[in-house]
What does this fold into?
Amino acid sequence: MFIMNIPYFNLDHIYKSGQVFMWQKIDDGKYIVPLRDKAIKVEQRRETISFSCSEEDFYSIWYDYFDLDTPYDRLHYKYRRLGEHFKISCNRCSGMHICKQDLFEVIIACCLETATSIDRTRQMMNGIAEKCGKRHKQSMRGEVIWYEFPTPEQILKRKSRLTTQDIGYKIDIITGICQDIIDGWLDLELLKVMDFDDAVEYLTEFKGIGPKVAQSICLFGLHQLEAFPIDTHIQQMCEREYDMDVDEWFEWELSDVDKSDIGYLREVLFYNELYPVSETNYDWTTIKKSRYGKGKRKRK
It folds into this structure.
């Protein structure tokens, strides 16, 4: 086991932000986290994080996966200074990180997520892993069973096991993307060295990948933090909080902001849309930042 104190890092914030679909939640602050053919149990108590791996594996695999090199404290303070809405949103999930996930897994997850819920996407991703991937039994201070997400070849070889109940009407889209990768049309290694604009343009050439999905793939699969996927949650936030559409909001509220890491703000705002605070219960003008990113709420 490897233990480390990590400020501005919160497993629950990451899990709830709609970027990871293969994590197994054991309890708040406690997860099984898979990455290709590896998996660990991660537990958090305030800033103390326990990883069920050696120090060598932590620094060779998981340090990069959890993106512990990026100064998220600076991003937090940068965006909370933009205004009261930004301040409250950032303070409610100051432990947000953008994980560096497997690119193919992210492509499939982002295609499945369109027009469905996060929970349903998790069900579909785990269904694909269980029916097409490799089963692992691993000791993590207790025996844990988890499934490795399959390769494109494994999905096509075992696609007869998948049903519409597993992944709905998107079977053809998923198998089509797998075939495009195998045939070399969708070149993942080429995609990894493209800049953001070229990557978005390239991805939207493939069936099932529109602009929002392409930007999500860039953010979560390529770790291009300039990506800002726009969905109905973000649109509704702009209309409700600013009486603007997204383009106007970018122009008026973020005109002077360096957008090279705007994907962090997107995840913060998206989290707050998924988990809104009831204004009838709390007076949010009294919220104060605590050490661990939780607000001290004053009841009306």
Notes: The CA atoms of residues 51 and 161 lie 34 Å apart. The beta strands are 2-5, 24-27, 30-35, 38-45, 48-51, 135-139, 143-147. The radius of gyration is 20 Å. The longest helix spans residues 118-132.
